[in-house]
Structure formats: C-alpha cells, structure tokens
Amino acid sequence: MESLKNRLVKESSSIGSDILKVDHFINHQIDVGFMKEIGEAIAERFKGEKIDKLLTVESGGIAVAIAAAEALACTKALFAKKTVPNTMTGECYTAEAKSFTKGTVSMLRVEKCFLNKGERILIVDDFLARGQAAMALVDIAQEAECEIVGVGAVIEKRFQGGSALLEERGIRVESLCVIDEIKDGVITFGQ
Ligand code: 5GP
Questions:
Q1: Which of 101, 107, 158, 182 maximizes ligand 1 atoms within 8 Å of its Cβ, making it the mutation to test the pocket?
Q2: Is the CB of 151 under 6 A from ligand 1?
Q3: 182, 13 contact by CB (below 8 A)
Q4: pLDDT reported for residue 189
Q5: Between the CA of residue 58 and those of 10, 13, 16, 106, 110, what are the distances in Å?
Q6: Mean pLDDT value of segment 115-142
C-alpha cells in the first residue's frame, strides 16, 4: 500500500531498530479517513472469501478490525482482551502472548460465547512482529473449532519472523506493508 509506505516515511519514528511508532495516525491518534483506506485494502486482499467475523487484540487492532469489517460488509469485529474487567463473567478461551513492545506476557481472552464452531474468522492487527499475538489468536480460534481465513496485518516487520511462523502453520498472511529493516531511522521496505 503505497500511501501507507509514504506515511510511514513521513510520519513514523523508530525506537532502535525494532520498534516503529505510528502514534500520529494509527496507534494513538487515528486518522479515521486513512483507517478506512486501510480497511478497504485489507478487504481487497481477502475479496471473495466468506468471512463471518474479524478477530483482533486490544487495543491497536480494534480500529483496524472495525475498518476492515466495514469494508467487508461483515457485521462483527471481536477483540481479545488482555485484562479481565468485572464485566467479563463468561467462560473464556485463553492463550498467552508475549508483548513485543512491553516485553511482558499477556493472557489473551475471548469469551466462549463469541466464537462458534465452523465460523470463518479473519484475524487482523496493526503490527505483525514475532507473531505472538496473531498466533495466540489462531490458537483461540482453533480451540473454538473456527476456520481461519488468514491474518491481515497493516505493518509487517518481516525480519522479526512472525509471518514465517504463521505460514509454517498453514495460515495465509497478507500484509499491507512489509518492512525488511529499520536502521538509523531509515525504513527499508520489502515486497
Ligand atoms: P507480535 O505479537 O507479532 O510480536 O507483535 C504484534 C503486536 O505487538 C501488535 O499487536 C502490536 O500492537 C505490537 N507491536 C509489535 N511491533 C510493534 C511496533 O513496532 N510498534 C508498535 N506500535 N506496536 C508493535
């Protein structure tokens, strides 16, 4: 997605050679019009697939899931929670994911009532790094006996291995923008 690459060059900043900050338009302040374009681009990649529900993880993935769901005319965007609010009273599917940015391990939780056997699930997220979050969502959806259509990532840092890990498990990965390297603040894009 050329417009995404251009915005990354102009509006992102890097923290070392591992982390990209996109707080101006994706992660903190959201450019709503641009998020709509992101949703449409994800929908384009998965055009023709039957998708019952989008699944993501709070908080960065929520806007992406809503935008993609809208573009796919899919009415449900579900997000795994990382903490347990008092309102989360039902039985849950759980899977652990080590947070790339925080270095902590979170337990991702989805109430069982929101995933039904046989549903076709598209997993989306803002970033794909080591694949921990996406893999945990795959585990949750598979435990619920759902079918996984694929993983749609807005920004994939390919050098961190997440897509390879998912593809080894037979999961289709589509990334709107692939980064091969971040060095001295310069992003090298891949295919
Ligand atoms: P993974 O689980 O694939 O290692 O990392 C993906 C998750 O970590 C995403 O949900 C995303 O929120 C966060 N993440 C990974 N890398 C980055 C990054 O470079 N910048 C930001 N803002 N978040 C990231």
A1: 101
A2: no
A3: no
A4: 98
A5: 26, 22, 24, 11, 11
A6: 98
- Residue whose token pair is 């449409």: 40
**Would the CB of 133 count as within 6 Å of ligand 1?**
yes
The burial of 168, by beta-carbon neighbours within 10 Å (0-12 exposed, 13-18 middle, 19 or more buried), is given as exposed
Tell me how far the alpha carbon of residue 154 lies from the centroid of ligand 1, in angstroms. 11
Burial grade of 147 (CB within 10 A; 0-12, 13-18, 19 or more):
middle
79 lines ligand 1 (CB under 6 A): no
Quote the CA–CA distance of 156 and 162 in Å, as a whole number: 8
Name the residue type at position 147. Answer: E
* DSSP 8-state secondary structure symbol assigned to residue 72: T
Taking the model in full, what pTM does it have? 0.97
Q: Is 154 in the pocket of ligand 1 (CB under 6 A)?
A: no
* Cα 44 versus chain centre, distance: 16
